[in-house]
Amino acid sequence: MQWWCAAQGVPWSWDWQAYPGVWLFALMLVGVFRLARRRYPETDRPRFRAWMYGLGVAALWVALDWPVGALGAGYLASVHMVQYLLIAMIAPPLLLMGVPRGLYRALANGLLGTPLRVLSHPISAVIVFVSIMAWTHWPPVVDTLMVSQIGSFVLDFVWLLSGLVFWWPVVAPEPQRSWLTEPAKVGYLIAATLVNTGVFAYLTFSPLPLYATYELAPPVSGLSTRDDQLVAGLLMKMGGAVILWTAISIIFFRWVGRSEREDRYVTGSVAVVLLALVAACGPGDPEASWLELGPVAVRDARVGEPPMPDRAALYFDVRTATGVPAGSGRVVVRGVEVDGAERAEIHETSLTDGMMRMRPVDSLVLAAGEERTLAPGGLHVMLLDLAEPLRAGDSVRVRLLLADPYGVVEFSAPVIPLEALGG
C-alpha cells in the first residue's frame, strides 16, 4: 500500500501525527460527552446511548483521517462525497442519539431555547440543510476552500452543523412538538429524499468536470475526472437514499410496535376494570388478584393522572412470591424504570414537624413472605421528567430492577383519575 501511494503521489501515513487535528477533534468530542454525562447522568439506556455516540465519533474519524480524508481532500470527488455522507448524514443522528436527555432539556430551557425551537422546526431544518448542501457543492466554493487545511475544516464543520440541524427534528426529544409524531417524521424524511435532486443532477449530467481541484489532481484510479464526478453524483443520490430510507424503516417499525403495545395496554386496562367489577360483586379469591412475576408478585398497580405534565406517582402492592422459599433470604428492589419517564425513584412520605416531606429511598427490601404497600401518603414511586403528559385511560410499562440473582420483572400499570386513587 505504501508503494502504491508513493507511485500515485498520494500521501501515506498511519501515524496519528500526520493528522493531529482529526485526533484532537475526536478526543474533544469524547471529552464533551464525558462532561455531559457527568453533569446530566443518563438513566435511559445509558450503554446504548454511549455506543451510538461512539459510533458517531468513529464515523467522523473515518471521514477525516487517512485514507478517506487524504483522497477526498484533493484527489477524488467520489471520495469527497463519501466524506459528505459520513459527516452530514451518518455521524449527526448517531451523535444526537448519544446526547444525555438532561442536556437537551437544559438547552431547550436556556438562552438558546427560542433560536433552537425555530431552527429545529422541520421546515427550517430542511431549508438550512439544502442551502448548505448546494452552497458547499458550488464549484467556486469548493475550489476556494479545498486549497488549505483551514478551508477544508470549515467545509467539514459546516457539513456537520447542517447534519445536526437536519436530524434534530427526527432524533432529539427537545423542543417537544406534539404534532411531530412518527408518521410526521417519516413524511419529513421522505420529503428529504427529494431535496438533493438538484445537486445530484448538476454533478451527474454536467458534460464537463466542475471542480478544478479534482481536474488538476494527480490520477489515482482508472476513472477519468468526468467519471469520478459522475460517481460522486450517484453516491449523493443513492447513498443518501439508503441512509434516509433506513431511518424511515426504523421509525416506521418502531411506530407500529409501539402502537401494538399501546393496544395491548388498553386491553390490559379493560381487563383490570373488569376484574375490579368482579371483585366488587363478591369476595372471590384474594390470591387471584396477585400477578406472579417470578421472585415477586404485584397487584393493584396504578398511576394517578398527574396534575403536573412532567411528573406522576406510581402505586402498587408487592410481596415475595409464593415460590421463593423462606430460607432463601430477601428480595431487594434496587430500582424502577418506567417507559416514558426519564427517571423513576422510590420515595417515602413522612410527617416531620407538622409538614409532609418526601425523601428518596435507595431500595425496597422484602423479607421472605413479606408484603409491602406503595400507596398515597407513604411509599410510592415518583415518575419524573415525563416525555408526554399522562391521561386517564393510558397505561405505562413498569420494570422492577431486582438485585442479583433475580434480574428484572415487568408489568403494566393503568393511569386512573386522582379521585379514584383513594388515600
Structure, described:
The protein has 423 residues and is an alpha+beta fold. It has helices spanning 2-8, 20-39, 46-64, 68-74, 77-98, 101-109, 113-119, 122-136, 139-145, 149-171, 182-195, 197-204, 212-215, 225-281; strands at residues 291-293, 296-304, 311-320, 331-338, 341-352, 355-360, 364-366, 371-374, 379-386, 395-402, 407-416. Strands 1, 2, 3, 4, 5, 6, 7, 8, 9, 10 and 11 form an eleven-stranded mixed beta sheet that branches. Mean pLDDT is 83; it is low at 1-18 and 264-285.
Please render the helix and strand layout as text:
Elements (H helix, E strand, L loop, with lengths): L1 H7 L11 H20 L6 H19 L3 H7 L2 H22 L2 H9 L3 H7 L2 H15 L2 H7 L3 H23 L10 H14 L1 H8 L7 H4 L9 H57 L9 E3 L2 E9 L6 E10 L10 E8 L2 E12 L2 E6 L3 E3 L4 E4 L4 E8 L8 E8 L4 E10 L7
Parallel strand pairs: 2-11
Antiparallel strand pairs: 1-2, 2-3, 3-8, 3-9, 4-7, 4-10, 5-6, 5-9, 10-11
Helix pairs in contact: 2-3, 3-5, 4-5, 5-10, 5-14, 8-10, 11-14, 12-14
* N- to C-terminal distance: 76 Å
- What class would the helix/strand composition place it in? alpha+beta
What is Rg? Answer: 28 Å
H/E element string? Answer: HHHHHHHHHHHHHHEEEEEEEEEEE
Q: Which range best describes the helical content: under 10%, 10-25%, 25-40%, 40-55%, 55-70% or over 70%?
A: 40-55%
CA-based shape: elongated
Main beta sheet: 11 strands, mixed
Low-pLDDT residue intervals, each spanning 5 or more residues: 1-18, 264-285
Summed over residues and divided by their number, the pLDDT gives a mean of 83
For the secondary structure, the number of strands is 11
Oligomeric nature of the chains? single chain
Count of discrete alpha- or pi-helical segments spanning 4 or more residues: 14
Strand fraction equals: 15-25%
